[in-house]
Fold this protein.
Amino acid sequence: MNININNNTGDSDILLKVENLETYYGKIAALNGISFEVKKGQIVTLLGSNGAGKSTTLKTLSGIISPSAGKVIFCGEDITNKPAHEIVKRGLVQLPEGRRIFKDLTVIENLELGAYTLKDKNMRKRLLNKVFERFPILAQRSKQQGGTLSGGEQQMLAIGRGLMLEPKLLLMDEPSMGIAPLIVRDITNIVKSLHDDGTTILLVEQNAKMALGLADYGYVLETGNIVLEGKSADLRSNEKVVKAYLGG
């Protein structure tokens, strides 16, 4: 049952609209006809336990996995069956779970790979400088191999790589995973900063307290179904969310 705490109505400024999306792994259903939306300038979070379908949702949106039914509308265009590289070109960029940087490549090489679809060298240089302005530690370590960075620095590198295309929508998959608790605060501040600069974000995060503290709106996934949605403030006070995800 889909319980809507606070209906997110109105079609103006909808950047992403997902309609009745179904995704299977073989004969096993991972997503059972989910629908949700993300408006420009928002942080929207998907909450849920392991196996709920959060990462599958992001992979389906970015074209890594093909859905069996439903639609993905991005910037008014149906991108449901577009290949992943075409979706990236349109400005929908995913930061994968576990960072997935190229550990044998230098920091600058990792970042340049993030802009592989850009032909304009001046644009690439401008975007690289913007990333270095946001993450000065990456500028200092630009010649180091990615694998020599700390976990927090690798996450900054992964985020920086995603920003190299100036995404219209950034899909963030578990940015706090494997990060020391003290560094989670830094990652939280980075997400806030991106939002303040106008980046629209769809955030998948098991750290529900962090996610709801950042997001404008949230959806709760259970076994491939959206069972709850609402403004983050309402979800934080919802008895079911508190009990299941906030340790109440």
Remarks:
- The mean pLDDT is 90.
- The first strand starts at residue 3 and ends at 4.
